[in-house]
Input
Amino acid sequence: MELKVPRGHVGVEQAKSSIIAAFTRLVHGKDAAVPSIAQLLAEAGIARSTLYRHFDDRTSLLVAAMHGPFDILSTAAVEGKASTQLIELLDHFWNGRRAAVELLGQPSANRLARKLGEQINAKYSGLERADAVRVAHTQLTLLRLWLGGETPGSAADVAGKIARSSVLQIAGFGISGTGNSGDSAGEFQGGNSGDRGGNSGDSILN
Output
């Protein structure tokens, strides 16, 4: 028997996706990283009530839009590998670093870290939730420092540091073995900046 998704559910998901898409287009096309509510409503062609039916505020929208990029960062924490996807993602962030610095900084930083921590925890259930958030904070701090020009290096260099620091931090919590993916969390492999295959996780800075 075919399982059918209720029409209302499809409509909700489509509306959320269209709002996130509008937010992403505005981030790509304006000097300030975070668009105003008025700009977002105009771009998405929706009423204010529709926006707030799906998102509490702009930070909630940003957190939702970062799910794809955070999937790549959380995988790095679990697998301990500077994958091609991670290197490509960092390249995208670097190319839009002015916007990325604003997006990843305050006042959104703590909520973004909690979101990334949740995704790390979902892939590595042996890790305490609070410790997963600590790993997320470390990843995002390394990323912000690099984008701000305080820690020079290539995207591959930073990808390696993010993956390696995650593994070491998780080991420091007394966790060993594998994450939910079945790959070793204690193995670190550096990336190759010349390898450009893969997908960057639908980054909002693509």
